[in-house]
Design a protein that fits this description.
Layout lengths: L1 E2 L6 E2 L2 E14 L4 E16 L16 E10 L8 E10 L2 E2 L7 E2 L2 E12 L3 E8 L7 E6 L2 E4 L4 E8 L2
């Protein structure tokens, strides 16, 4: 793990990382799909020249992350081919300094998507991430070197199979 601010970076001694990552994808019905994921880490500096950092958590890395999404595709009727989706993403807190005195708060953002197409032929999709344009700090490598997460973003795609 590299820590510090720009032009003042240094490598930590050793970090013990234990955790779990889970992901599930399920077809709840023929039309409704669920995607969920969760990550939890236990991070601890175990060896370091600066003895005051032993037992602390490295900067930048959140210890929890999770997401949940639902996607509904109309398979019959006048709306056949229309896809509606939405989801929520959570990023847990992390630390902004090596001494773990300053915390970067957790954040939750929402995403949506809409699409239309003919299965196995073409699909037009509009996906919007961070729908509410939440401004939040994604992480810090030091108390004076932080980065904001991406604001609202829209992506329009056309997929064609031939």
């Amino acid at each position: 793990v590299v820590t510090g601010s720009f032009q003042n970076e240094r490598q930590l001694g050793e970090v013990n990382s234990q955790g779990i990552e889970l992901e599930a994808k399920a077809n709840l019905t023929k039309e409704l799909q669920l995607t969920a994921s969760a990550t939890a880490y236990d991070l601890e500096i175990t060896k370091e020249e600066d003895q005051s950092l032993i037992g602390k958590q490295p900067v930048t890395v959140p210890t929890e992350m999770a997401s949940l999404g639902l996607d509904y595709t109309f398979r019959q009727g006048v709306l056949q081919g229309l896809r509606l989706g939405g989801g929520v993403r959570y990023q847990g807190a992390s630390f902004a300094d090596e001494s773990n005195n300053n915390e970067v708060p957790s954040a939750t953002v929402y995403d949506i998507g809409v699409g239309y197409g003919v299965e196995d032929q073409w699909q037009l999709n509009l996906n919007v991430t961070n729908l509410l344009d939440k401004e939040y700090v994604a992480g810090c490598s030091s108390i004076t070197a932080c980065g904001y997460a991406e604001g609202r973003a829209a992506l329009l795609t056309l997929n064609v199979n031939w």
